[in-house]
């Protein structure tokens, strides 16, 4: 069995934030946990890059209220077809982030449905988490589905696997640069803040109290065990955001998975790679 490497991504955290974290940890562990959770659940809204403007301009956009989380998201519909594909971006991403993949599907006669997750892009809210990605996916299936396929990137890949586990009915799925073990992600984050492991575990306990189950129950490899449809797993060997061991670990837990390792594409450039898109086309034939 592939051994999973505990990996801390290169989070760029300002020095003053680390100082505040350490002071709060010394003053009150409870305040430190609240501070860490606020940072952990607040995505960065980046400006839409030029390569995504075409998709943003050509898409039919609408606001959709997600009943389960009481939040409104912005939805993008590109193309016009009865054959539909769901696209799910990652943390601090946007509904247009998979634009190259979306245009490829439209050229092949599909319509793509993508969205800005809560607190991302044009959607409302300041904080979010994977459960809100999942809630959005499940309602979009009801409102715009059925979907033929789904493609997810990073946290969106984890949310896609969890959504299939929860009943998302699709024929095949593609996941790209997926994270894996929630505990490693959370403890890695608090470590980057300069906090103690104990504070990270207290943060995990707060999430578990909120959701009524262990945070690791949302780990990609656990969801993968319940995903019986064919799944194509992409990961770059030099992905600096998510270690490649995550892809191997997810792959060995998929009943019907295929793993493709790329070189020199990193965590985001891979989304526009022509060879990756070609392999997606071949897989979905």
UniProtKB/TrEMBL annotation:
Domain Peptidase S33 tripeptidyl aminopeptidase-like C-terminal residues, every copy: 228-284
Statement: the UniProt record of this protein carries the keyword Hydrolase: yes
InterPro entries: AB_hydrolase, AB_hydrolase_1, AB_hydrolase_fold, Pept_S33_TAP-like_C
SUPFAM superfamilies: alpha/beta-Hydrolases
GO MF entries: hydrolase activity
Keyword set, alphabetical order: Hydrolase
Positions of the AB hydrolase-1 domain: 85-189
Domain of life where this protein originates: Bacteria
One Pfam family matching this protein: Abhydrolase_4
Coiled coil: none
Protein name: Alpha/beta hydrolase
Classification of source organism: Bacteria, Pseudomonadati, Bacteroidota, Flavobacteriia, Flavobacteriales
